């Protein structure tokens, strides 16, 4: 589904990613974990077009999307729920969701039934339904995370990128977020999950890659990695 | 007392023109953090273009054509003035570029329509109405109604249509808007088009009650800055309040002090507001991130 | 005692940089000679008058360059200041019959006062807001001049007689240079004023004031944190600029012998801006070239024959430059087609037109657009880029630099019993969000204290609270200094820097257009005692201070290993070196406490090794260090003590080893397995 080879990217003079290779097979959840500064969010941004890759290729269903502007990447079917949620604060919850389907409403993607998809989002996130006319800026952190995820799903994407969904959330809410992720997994949504909190991510992913200093340190089936001391060392130092 | 009411009434009309121009500044600043320093020339060109059309098709039919003209003008300003400056990452090059375009437009207008001020035929009777002891020109009513209507129309567009929502989304968070599949560059061009369109419309609204010429817009645009700053460059309601405050302050100054000093309160208000509260009366304070 | 590496000498200057100073001196000599000789070669009074106007405008534009070129702001009000100067001189004559010398004094004095007035609303705003403020100011000035008829004679204007520059009759003498010479007295006065302006601007720009101006353009936040108050220096920049505008205005009044309100409006201000951007900012030649262009342009445009000749010359020059650039460039060659094409097209266009005067302003507008896109550094900037020998002499370039003295002032270090920094229940609330929820931290002197925690734990917030960028909602921050203590919370970044707390930034905040040496010199700002007058007059105290501080700055650069790169502009340094430079700049503050915000971010392994060595040396010199870092190896290897934050709380504290093994810390970083059972938060 998503194939990344030799991806290098950075900001200004600094090269943050040094030749990453990874894949996200269709219908699976792949986790990208690592300590802060390892390059996880940079990877997401390179994938969704927020920054331009310096080298390497990104193929979505065989189509090259590396180097495209972010709106073209979205049109190709990659939805990115960004770090920090970044909902549109002066628009209502409902409008935020509607905008997630922008390419469908403006002819760049098959239209389908947008209204029905919106109602499905409200089913999945009942708390958003209660607040559908409320301005997104007044929602709590957890609610905004739900909204960001719902908004990304409105694209009917081929692949969903979730960037640090647990950031800044209290543990109860983190639990809820991951419950939703499990639900989506059950519905066969292909996901690439970037998380600082390794344990949560490993609990829900099929496969995981550990990023350190812009390189993939090691990878493997998520189940196996949960008790691997090497994962802990990647975060807190010590022998690898 | 009657005089006071009279002055306030006249001030309201003028204030709504300022609000309409300032509205345009807000629109482009919200989406792109830039604005058109040549907005006054867009207003003047709108008025002059309208003036040329009026003998052929009359005032009311001229309006939609002027709107289209303004829309196209805005796109030109964005394409030639703003986009290249932003692309070369020049910090304030767009300020000079939009000023330059304004100068060019004014000069071209002077050559086409001459340097003298012209009379714009009023579509409404020029005799004043008496409303409770206060004399109001029908045209002034049209100005207030027209300005409000236009701002309302844009607000409705922003709330109801998908492209309007895309404009708001871009103003909120340009990166996230891109992730939604919104072509934010097109949105910025659109906001400039709408902005110039509102200025051109303001031009044909105000032209019948003032002198029409290539220079009619310059001082208006500067004072509209004051209104935009007072109201906050990000808020919608603030410009109307700011415009009314300024308009009334001006007519009061013009009467009680002297017509020469009419323009001063707005400018002083601008300086005072920026000294105390740089984000404007209605603007939101920004939390620094280092 | 601090250890320094063996003092390094900057590499012997290559031939090219030396040339730059020589070019400068040559240019100055040519200018002086040219000005002196001009009226004897070109005797037409019309052209002499033109020269006078060019010189007067150049004085103003040199001052405008300080605001536009050095502090990087767009000022739309300089025509207003020009008008104030002109009217100050004219009004003095009108009411008190005072002549040109009084006029000059009044012009400078009154306009400087207006410069202070203008600076007040301009202090807290930048960019388009500042442009609007200056535009409003200029317009207000025009209106007041027009309306205050009793004072200014209103729209009628004021007429002045020919200026009496030197009054030999006072000494009972005859003028030694005869009647013909007398006519040139005014010309030579203006020339002297221009040369004096060039000298003054040169001195100011190379002084700590000039460096502060550039610093506040490149990074106002870093400026404040280095103890250089952005507000104060903005005022200085406006006042100096205004003083020069006032001088120019007074001279202009006596030159034209007539002042009227509508000559000092928006069109003139735009012309001045065009001159400074087209000529080239941050230079002395640029404003002079720019002034010549804007003065000559209307004369050229009035004569279609001249226009065609000029267009032909431009087309020819563009062709040559374009072909050369095309051959030399590798990438993006076809982007050259547009500007070259425009220049070429200009020529046949002028052949088709009979007259251009009506489109004079359009030509100016097009020139502005052209300059903004294709000549952003002006003609002088373009020449500097193509001819390396003309590159500006950065302070001390061409001179041998050597380090002297200790890089770091020894601090009364040693692991004392009393804490150096005490943070007591720090609370930072943004709306409903508690970024810091009551954190206690004590830092012992002479130690390296680490502050770690996952994303969003409050580390950066703590850093900003400690350095005054945020005012804490509650709690206190206390620094032990000498005998007593000092409360830091609620103070401005400038004050905290002065108290001895220096910092680096997560995203490098160097003064990009200044060299490494100049960056450190800004950090050393606090040790300069000289005033603005010392700078302008070039007093021995000024020269001595500059020499001493440069030597000290070199010592600091050597300390962080950047001695050989002293003359490189910060933006051209490799990333790892930029981070080290930031540390060097912070050390220049002679801090007792150094706060490092993710210094290892983005660094390669060899860079990290260099960094840790330097941090250790800093600690050995007695300076206390607080380190925010994600690279655990760096933290473990360096820190004596580590505090761990999570969700705005401190969840652990101890030695690096203790913290690394603490299960609460592990859970904070890795998270706990999200299972079905309820989670309790530690």
Automatic annotation (TrEMBL), chain B:
Keywords from the named record: Amino-acid transport, Cell membrane, Membrane, Transmembrane, Transmembrane helix, Transport
Principal location class: membrane
Membrane topology: Multi-pass membrane protein
Transmembrane parts of this sequence: 43-71, 92-109, 129-154, 187-207, 264-287
Record bears the keyword Lipid biosynthesis: no
Keyword Transmembrane helix listed: yes
PANTHER family: AMINO ACID ABC TRANSPORTER PERMEASE PROTEIN, BRANCHED-CHAIN AMINO ACID TRANSPORT SYSTEM PERMEASE PROTEIN LIVH
Similarity comment: Belongs to the binding-protein-dependent transport system permease family. LivHM subfamily.
Name assigned to this protein: Branched-chain amino acid ABC transporter permease
Protein's organism: Methylobacterium longum
């Amino acid at each position: 589904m998503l194939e990344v080879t030799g991806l290098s990217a950075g900001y200004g003079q600094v090269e943050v990613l040094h030749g990453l290779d990874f894949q996200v097979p269709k219908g699976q959840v792949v986790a990208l974990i690592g300590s802060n500064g390892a390059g996880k969010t940079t990877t997401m941004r390179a994938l969704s077009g927020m920054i331009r890759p310096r080298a390497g290729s990104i193929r979505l269903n065989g189509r090259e999307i590396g180097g495209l502007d972010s709106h073209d990447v979205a049109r190709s079917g990659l939805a990115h729920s960004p770090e920090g949620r970044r909902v549109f604060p002066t628009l209502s919850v409902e409008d935020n969701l509607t905008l997630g389907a922008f390419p469908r409403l403006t002819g760049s993607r098959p239209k389908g039934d947008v209204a029905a998809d919106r109602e499905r989002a409200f089913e999945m996130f009942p708390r958003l339904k209660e607040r559908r006319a409320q301005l997104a800026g007044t929602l709590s952190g957890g609610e905004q995370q739900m909204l960001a995820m719902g908004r990304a799903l409105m694209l009917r994407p081929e692949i969903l990128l979730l960037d640090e969904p647990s950031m800044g959330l209290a543990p109860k809410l983190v639990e809820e977020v991951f419950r939703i992720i499990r639900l989506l997994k059950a519905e066969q949504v292909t996901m690439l999950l970037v998380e600082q909190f390794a344990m949560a991510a490993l609990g829900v992913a099929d496969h995981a890659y550990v990023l350190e200093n812009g390189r993939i340190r090691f990878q493997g089936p998520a189940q196996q990695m949960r008790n691997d001391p090497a994962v802990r060392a990647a975060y807190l130092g010590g022998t690898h | 007392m009657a005089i006071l009411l009279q002055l306030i009434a006249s001030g309201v009309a003028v204030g709504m023109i300022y609000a309409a121009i300032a509205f345009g500044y807000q629109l482009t600043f919200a989406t792109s953090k830039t604005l058109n320093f040549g907005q006054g020339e867009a207003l003047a060109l709108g008025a002059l273009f309208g003036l040329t059309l009026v003998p052929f098709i009359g005032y009311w039919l001229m309006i939609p054509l002027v709107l289209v003209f303004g829309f196209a003008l805005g796109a030109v300003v964005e394409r030639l003035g703003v986009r290249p400056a932003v692309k070369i990452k020049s910090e304030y090059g767009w300020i000079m570029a939009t000023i330059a375009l304004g100068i060019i437009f004014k000069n071209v207008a002077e050559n086409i329509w001459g340097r003298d001020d012209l009379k714009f035929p009023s579509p409404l009777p020029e005799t004043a109405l008496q409303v409770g002891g206060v004399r109001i020109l029908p045209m002034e009513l049209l100005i207030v109604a027209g300005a409000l209507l236009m701002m309302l129309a844009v607000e409705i567009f922003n709330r109801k249509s998908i492209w309007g929502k895309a404009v708001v989304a871009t103003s909120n968070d340009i990166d996230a808007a891109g992730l939604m599949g919104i072509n934010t560059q097109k949105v910025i061009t659109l906001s400039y088009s709408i902005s110039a369109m509102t200025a051109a419309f303001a031009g044909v609204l105000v032209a019948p009650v003032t002198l029409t010429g290539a220079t009619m817009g310059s001082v208006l645009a500067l004072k509209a800055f004051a209104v935009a700053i007072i109201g906050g460059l990000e808020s919608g309601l603030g410009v109307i309040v700011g415009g009314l405050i300024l308009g009334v302050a001006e007519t009061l100054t013009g009467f009680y002090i002297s017509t020469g000093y009419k323009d001063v309160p707005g400018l002083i208000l601008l300086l005072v507001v920026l000294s105390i509260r740089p984000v404007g009366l209605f603007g939101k304070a920004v939390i620094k991130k280092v | 005692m601090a250890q320094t590496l063996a003092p390094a000498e900057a590499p012997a200057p290559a031939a090219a940089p030396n040339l730059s100073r020589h070019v400068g001196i040559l240019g100055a000599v040519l200018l002086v000679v040219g000005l002196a000789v001009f009226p004897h070669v070109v005797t037409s009074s019309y052209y002499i008058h033109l020269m006078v106007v060019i010189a007067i405008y150049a004085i103003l534009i040199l001052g405008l360059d300080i605001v536009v070129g050095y502090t990087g702001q767009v000022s739309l009000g300089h025509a207003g200041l020009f008008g104030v100067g002109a009217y100050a001189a004219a009004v003095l004559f009108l009411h008190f019959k005072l002549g040109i010398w009084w006029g000059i004094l009044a012009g400078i004095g009154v306009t400087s006062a207006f410069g202070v007035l203008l600076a007040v609303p301009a202090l807290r705003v930048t960019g388009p807001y500042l442009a609007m403020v200056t535009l409003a100011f200029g317009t207000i000035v025009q209106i007041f001049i027009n309306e205050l008829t009793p004072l200014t004679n209103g729209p009628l204007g004021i007429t002045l007689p020919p200026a009496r520059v030197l009054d030999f009759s006072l000494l009972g003498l005859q003028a030694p240079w005869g009647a013909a010479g007398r006519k040139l007295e005014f010309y030579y006065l203006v020339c002297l004023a221009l040369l004096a302006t060039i000298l003054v601007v040169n001195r100011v720009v190379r002084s700590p004031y000039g460096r502060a101006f550039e610093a506040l353009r490149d990074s106002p936040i870093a400026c404040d944190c280095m103890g250089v108050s952005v507000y104060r220096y903005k005022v200085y920049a406006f006042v100096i600029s205004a003083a020069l505008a006032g001088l120019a205005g007074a001279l202009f009044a006596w030159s034209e012998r007539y002042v009227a309100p509508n000559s000092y409006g928006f069109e003139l201000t735009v012309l001045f801006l065009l001159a400074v951007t087209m000529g080239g900012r941050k230079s002395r030649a640029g404003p002079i070239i720019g002034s010549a262009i804007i003065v000559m342009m209307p004369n050229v445009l009035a004569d279609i024959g001249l226009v065609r000749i000029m267009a032909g010359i431009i087309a020819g020059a563009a062709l040559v430059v374009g072909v050369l650039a095309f051959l030399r460039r590798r990438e993006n060659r076809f982007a050259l087609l547009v500007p070259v094409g425009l220049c070429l097209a200009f020529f046949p266009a002028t052949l088709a037109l009979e007259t251009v005067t009506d489109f004079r302003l359009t030509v100016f507008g097009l020139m502005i657009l052209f300059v903004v896109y294709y000549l952003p550094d002006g003609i002088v900037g373009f020449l500097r880029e193509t001819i390396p020998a003309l590159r500006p002499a950065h302070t001390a370039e061409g001179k041998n630099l050597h380090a002297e003295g200790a890089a770091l002032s020894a601090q009364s270090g040693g692991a004392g019993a009393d804490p150096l920094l005490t943070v007591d229940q720090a609370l930072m609330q943004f709306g409903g969000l508690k970024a810091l929820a009551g954190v206690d931290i004590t830092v012992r002197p002479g130690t390296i204290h680490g502050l770690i925690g996952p994303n969003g734990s409050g580390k950066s917030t703590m850093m900003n609270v400690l350095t005054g960028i945020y005012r804490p909602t509650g709690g206190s921050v206390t620094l032990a200094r000498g005998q007593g203590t000092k409360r830091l919370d609620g103070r401005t970044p400038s004050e905290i820097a002065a108290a001895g707390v220096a910092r680096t930034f997560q995203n490098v905040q160097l003064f990009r257009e200044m060299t490494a040496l100049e960056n450190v010199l800004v950090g050393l700002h606090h040790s300069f005692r000289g005033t603005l007058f010392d700078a302008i007059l070039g007093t021995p105290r000024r020269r001595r201070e500059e020499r001493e501080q440069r030597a000290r700055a070199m010592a600091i650069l050597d300390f962080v290993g950047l001695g050989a790169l002293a003359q490189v502009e910060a933006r051209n340094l490799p990333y790892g070196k930029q981070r080290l430079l930031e540390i060097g700049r912070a050390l220049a503050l002679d801090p007792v406490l150094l706060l490092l915000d993710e210094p290892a971010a983005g660094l390669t392994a060899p860079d990290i090794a260099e960094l840790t060595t330097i941090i250790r040396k800093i600690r050995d010199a007695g300076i206390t260090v607080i380190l925010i870092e994600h690279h655990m190896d760096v933290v473990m290897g360096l820190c004596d003590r580590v505090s761990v934050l999570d969700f705005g709380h401190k969840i652990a504290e101890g030695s690096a080893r203790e913290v690394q093994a603490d299960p609460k810390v592990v859970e904070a970083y890795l998270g706990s397995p999200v299972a079905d059972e309820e989670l309790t938060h530690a």
